[in-house]
Amino acid sequence: xxxxxxxxxxxxxxxxxxxxxxxxxxxxxxxxxxxxxxxxxxxxxxxxxxxxxxxxxxxxxxxxxxxxxxxxxxxxxxxxxxxxxxxxxxxxxxxxxxxxxxxxxxxxxxxxxxxxxxxxxxxxxxxxxxxxxxxxxxxxxxxxxxxxxxxxxxxxxxxxxxxxxxxxxxxxxxxxxxxxxxxxxxxxxxxxxxxxxxxxxxxxxxxxxxxxxxxxxxxxxxxxxxxxxxxxxxxxxxxxxxxxxxxxxxxxxxxxxxxxxxxxxxxxxxxxxxxxxxxxxxxxxxxxxxxxxxxxxxxxxxxxxxxxxxxxxxxxxxxxxxxxxxxxxxxxxxxxxxxxxxxxxxxxxxxxxxxxxxxxxxxxxxxxxxxxxxxxxxxxxxxxxxx
Length: 387
Ligand SMILES: Nc1ncnc2c1ncn2[C@@H]1O[C@H](COP(=O)(O)OP(=O)(O)O)[C@@H](O)[C@H]1O
Ligand SMILES: [Mg+2]
Known about the structure:
The protein is of the alpha+beta class. The chain folds into 2 domains: about 5-230, P-loop containing nucleotide triphosphate hydrolases (Rossmann fold); about 245-380, CATH 2.40.50.140. The protein has 11 helices and 22 strands. The protein has helices at about 45-50, 100-110, 115, 120-125, 145-155, 175-190, 200-205, 225-230, 235-240, 335-345, 370-380, and strands at about 5-15, 15-25, 30-35, 60-65, 65-70, 75, 85, 160-165, 195-200, 210-215, 220-225, 245-250, 255-260, 265, 270, 280-285, 290-295, 305-315, 320-325, 330-335, 350-355, 365. The strands form 4 sheets. A 6-stranded mixed beta sheet has the order 7-8-9-3-10-11, sandwiched between helices. β4 (about 60-65) and β5 form a beta hairpin. The protein is globular, with a radius of gyration of 24 Å. The structure holds adenosine-5'-diphosphate and magnesium ion (MG).
C-alpha cells in the first residue's frame, strides 16, 4: 500500500523531437507540486501524459497502488478512468451549459448521483464564491469567475489528483492574485493532491509544497521552495528563480576576479560544481542583494564594492529599479526611494556609482556555455523578482 504518485522514466516524443525525456517524479498524497519551467520545456506534455490525454513511448505512471500507464506491458488506463480533475489555462468550460451543469459534469460521468442530490454542486460553487452564478452561462461571467468555476469543476468529484495547467496566465494581475490565493486556501482546507504547471516563479513559490524545475523535458531540481530559493543547483535554475545578476569570474594568480578586474573572495559564497582547478566561473545573485551607496565610505565591512556607472532607473513607489554597468556586465538593484531619490534624479546615464554586495549572496557555478545560453533566454522571460 503506497500513498505516492510515481512517474518513472517517462518519455514522450513527437517524431524525433523528445519532449519529455526519461522524467521521474514522486508526489506525496496531499502534496501540492509545482512544475516550473520556461515555455516549450515539456510541462503541458507531462501533465497530459499524467491525465491520459497523451500516450507516452515509455515509462510508468502509478497513482498510489494503481498502475495507470506502463510502456512495457502496454497498460494504459484511459483518461476518464484515472479519476483526475483538470483545470486549464483557457478555462475550457462548456459554453452551452450553465455553471451548474458545468460543475455537475464530473459527477454525472462518474455516476455520483448521490453527491448531486446531497448538494455537492452548490457546495463546490460556494467554495469558490460562485454560488450566485449557478444559472448563468460561461459567456455571462468574467475571466476570474470562469476560472473559479473551472476550479470547482476540477475539485467537485474529489479526484485522486488535480492537474492545473497555467490556470492563472489568462487573468489580469489583480484577479491572478485573487484566484491564486483561493486555490491555495482550497488546498489547505481540502488537502487534495495537485500538480500545478507554471512558468511564473512567484506563483511557484507561493503555491508549491515542492517545486520541480524543468529543463528540456527533464527535472533539473526537485526540492522545497526554500531550498530552491537558497540553493539553486545550476545557473539555469538560479536565473529562472530571480537571480538576475550575473558576473563572469576568472581565476588569476591572486584568486578570483570579475571581468572588470575587481577581486572577489569566494570563501563565503555558495559554490557548486566548480572544479578545484577551474579558471572560469559564473556568479549569480538577486537584485535585492545589490546595494547602492553614495560613496565608498558607506560600503559595509566585508562587502565587495564595485565601481559602476548608471545605465537607467525606474521609479517604483517605495523603491527605484536601478541598472548599472560594471565592466561589460549590467547589474540591477532595488534602491530605497527615500534614501536615493534626490541623487538618482540628479544623475545622468554614465554617472559614477558605487554598488556592493555580500559574498554570501553569491551562488557560483562552473561556467557552462549551454547553461549561459539558456539563462540568457530566461532573463528575457518577464519573471517578477520573488520578494
Ligand atoms: N501534439 C504535438 N505535436 C508535435 N509537437 C508537440 C505537440 N505538443 C507539444 N509539442 C512540442 O513539444 C514541446 C513541449 O511542448 P509543451 O509540453 O506544450 O511545453 P510547455 O507546456 O512547457 O510550454 C514544444 O516544442 C512543442 O512544440
Ligand atoms: Mg504549456
